[in-house]
Design brief:
CATH topology of the largest domain: Quinone Oxidoreductase, Chain A, domain 1
Number of domains: 2
Oligomer: single chain
CATH superfamily of the largest domain: Medium-chain alcohol dehydrogenases, catalytic domain
Bound molecules: nicotinamide-adenine-dinucleotide, zinc ion
């Protein structure tokens, strides 16, 4: 049986999404049909719309989602119909070396980057039968999606879908960059450059870890005010002398600096914000092929470290329930990250607002 769903589709060129009716087939063996409750609008979707990353197309966008399991294919064991799940945009194969080492985020067996299920196909088509590719094999900007079992992680039903959707990308990425990748000890001085949905999640993670001071940098005063509400102790406008202010506030440079925009210029700023032996964490993702330049002699002589952070080093089946529990315990104010709850039809406005540096996080809420 196939069902219809309203979905936001990128036809491969141009920065607009077309919201149209698509067809969603039944889940195959090891797959799960999810009725979406909510989907966040993430900066990574914007990279695709703005032509910065190439993907198979037409693409059903969205990779930050949560919903209800509507049906399961043969052999599915981890989730059952009616379960509430957060979707992972990197479904682990559970067989490769990285998976065996507990590094699901580094899985080499997944085909999520190709927007394909493990068998090399998808369950989504246009009404004329054309194959549609779910972005990162998640395709959360659709009323229904079919994902591998390992991409659907059960969470408590008390977590509302709008909050749960964010656990699937911005929160896992931002909090994970602090606790899994950088492993920030309490009392560490820290800087966050770029306070969108992911950067504010880094701020939340730093507050959770007990970092101090927590210095937030952005071009937008509204984003800096949000950063303060999530635990930033100082704010610095990006158009000022950021390095001088960070050096002054920290007394010589920060122990940790997170770049959460993906611009070569701000990535190049990172080493200059760090204290001797400090660590820079690269979370923001640039356009394909972009390069950044650093003073290698200075980096080496001062013993600084630069690390890449992918999906916050998350193991979805471990980290998503943990993050949901921290939310339920009142330790992560995830509701406050949502600035706008919108209908799917308003998705293009959400990307325009993001391009203008407005809104902390737009979340599409499905009926
Ligand atoms: N590494 C990962 O696993 C991972 C996961 C998710 C998202 N990301 C990436 O993280 C980045 C941020 O995503 P997002 O959803 O938060 O995007 P966003 O657009 O909501 O946030 C970007 C923020 O940067 C600010 N900004 C822009 N230019 C600036 C400048 N020159 N100086 C200081 N601030 C500036 C904007 O005002 C905005 O607040 C994107 O590149 C996205 O692809 C990475
Ligand atoms: Zn794997
Ligand atoms: Zn994302």
């Amino acid at each position: 049986m196939t069902r219809t769903a309203l979905a936001a589709v990128h036809d491969g060129s141009g920065d607009r999404l077309d919201v149209r009716t698509i067809r969603v087939a039944d889940p195959g063996p090891g797959e799960v049909l999810v009725r979406m409750g909510a989907s966040g609008v993430c900066g990574s979707d914007r990279h695709v719309l703005d032509g910065e990353w190439q993907l198979p197309s037409p693409t059903v966008m969205g990779h930050e989602g949560a919903g209800v399991v509507e049906a399961v294919g043969a052999g599915v064991q981890d989730v059952a119909v009616g379960d509430h799940v957060v979707l992972s945009w990197c479904y682990p194969c559970r067989r490769c070396r990285a998976c065996a080492q507990g590094k699901a985020w580094a899985c080499t067996g997944t085909r999520s980057g190709e927007c394909l299920l493990p068998d090399g196909t998808t369950r989504l088509t246009d009404e004329d039968g054309t194959t549609l590719y779910p972005y990162l094999a998640a395709g959360t900007m659709s009323e229904y999606s079919v994902v591998p079992e390992s991409a659907a992680v059960r969470i408590p039903k008390e977590v509302p879908f709008d909050v749960a959707s964010l656990i699937g990308c911005s929160i896992a990425t931002g909090v994970g960059a602090v606790v899994n990748n950088a492993r920030v000890p309490s009392g560490s001085s820290s800087v966050v450059i770029g306070c969108g949905g992911v950067g504010l999640a880094v701020v939340m993670g730093l507050a959770l870890a007990g970092a101090d001071p927590i210095i937030a940098v952005d071009t937008s005063d509204a984003k800096l005010a949000s950063a303060r509400s999530f635990g930033a102790t100082h704010t610095v406008r990006a158009d000022s002398d950021v390095a001088a202010q960070v050096v002054e506030i920290t007394g010589g440079g920060a122990d940790f600096a997170f770049e959460v925009i993906g611009r070569p210029q701000t990535i190049e700023q990172v080493p200059g914000l760090l204290a001797t032996a400090g660590t820079g964490v690269l979370v923001g993702l640039p356009a394909e092929g972009e390069k950044a330049s650093i003073d290698v002699l200075e980096l080496a002589e001062s013993g600084k470290t630069l690390i890449g952070s992918n999906y916050g080093g998350a193991v979805p089946s471990v980290d998503f329930p943990k993050l949901a529990q921290l939310y339920l315990a009142g330790r992560l104010p995830l509701d406050a990250l949502i600035s706008d709850r919108i209908a799917l039809a308003e998705v293009n406005d959400a990307f325009d607002a993001m391009r203008a540096g407005e809104r902390t996080r737009s979340v599409i809420v499905f009926d």
